[in-house]
Amino acid sequence: MIEYRLQLSRGTLEYGTMKSTTLLAALVPILCLTACGGVPEPADLVITGGRIVTMDPDRPEAEAIAARGQKVVAVGGSAEIARLIGDNTEIVELDGALAVPGFIEGHGHFTGLGRSRMILDLTRVENFEEIVEMVAAAVVEAGPGEWILGRGWHQEKWSSTPEPNVSGLPYHRSLSEVSPANPVVLVHASGHASMVNAVALELAGIGDDTPDPAGGEIVRDAEGRAIGVLRETAEDLVGSHLDTEPDEATLRKVIELASRECLAKGITSFQDAGSSFALVELLRSMAENEELDLRLWVMLSEDNESLAAGLPGYEVYRAGDDYLTVGGIKRWIDGALGSHGAWLLEPYTDLPTSTGLNIVTPDELRESARLALEHRLQLCSHAIGDRANRTTLDVYEEAYETVPEPRDLRWRVEHAQHLHPDDIARFAEIGVVAAMQPIHCTSDGPWVPERLGEERSRTGAYVWRDLFEAGAVIASGTDVPVEPVDPLPSFHAAVTRRMADGEAFYPNQVMTRMEALNARTLGAAYAAFEEDIKGSLEVGKLADVTVFSRDILTIPIEEILEAEVLYTVVGGKVRYRAR
Question: Domain of 82: which CATH number?
């Protein structure tokens, strides 16, 4: 029997920026039957003929669904849903394929994805020499003084170590020789370090005697010479000389490139981990003019002073028919493990002189927490090292205790990669979402024990199973452009923890396939207070659907990466179809 459920309002919800009444749209008649014949009103879209996993506990699977406008209007068997097919109904015939709720990117950098397609792609380089060759080729095409930009290198993934080096990081000499007049900035895959050449160092006024900025490091050799690698906030010394505010035409191109790639990979919603007020205003305009092809939930990345000035009276909540919401404030507590920037309780095993870097101080985070509470936004803090996570949880717990009335805050820790065992249960106890990226586990796994040692790696690195068993909610993503936005390698990583060499990184921490699917659908929707409209295929919810060529929930686990996205449906419209 077709499910025709009326989803009654639960009343007015107040969380994050949300002050609205939940779905009453389902009160619009699901079937408009005539008095004599019972002819149903046709649907705009019908998806039928395969396995549909709904993530609705009351009806976990179906053969077909129908949508009218942006919403699901019926869920049921193929023969019954066929009654809703009219002359103008678009039909997606699954032919046995798998349809699931639209995949949500639970943590990524939306414009970062688009921009990464407009600069040198260093994600696949084999060694530093290959990078130098790419820069030399770019210089030939560049104008006088034009910046040469790239992103994606990772020294731990190179086939050979450059000589000379400092902790595996190369000197800038080769880059400076091939680009004597063009400044070069090449960002680490994590985004938390950069290689620059002599021209860029000179423009930024960086010399051997330049002091390290708070929360950053100018990497130097044993003689105190700056080698041309900048960690964390030291990157800003050069970055401040770049044109960081592209014109609107460029931004629209960036958004177009990011949207196109997301849709091709089955992403229907994207939780953006840090944008400015200015970018949000462009996105708001695009949403209201129906120019966005997928849904965005955005964290504001501004300093406390700018937030205090800009937030009063500011609200972007489900603008443009649910295509844009500003729901959080983004903070960076520490850096990345790969660049020795993650903030640790004990020194690095392979760098005993360092415990990493603290970027936003605890007091600054407390002020961000105050602003988040005042303006009903979620606080979303980048924390990778165990000390960064503990500090973040401490500040969150303090803030939660100041709230006089019961409120469901759902503040988030972005990454939560390396936890002290004593802090794992605190996520559920406090009510904090762990926004994690499974692909980081298998990508970083080969060198994590070098950084942390075996004991810390075993008991605290990417401990998804321990978090689940403690009762925590995990929202999954890729951290694109740090990793590809494609959700299937991340899904595969979640259920196997298998690294490139075939070995599994502490496999006792794997997710089940349904847990991994939940983390990309309902879990991610919950992490943004959007489970009332997303995350499952139910009557009255948004008709956002991802269709895979193969059933990733049942096929042999080694075949998951062979699946492809066939269709991406957003709001009842097919936004992508495989050719």
Answer: 2.30.40.10
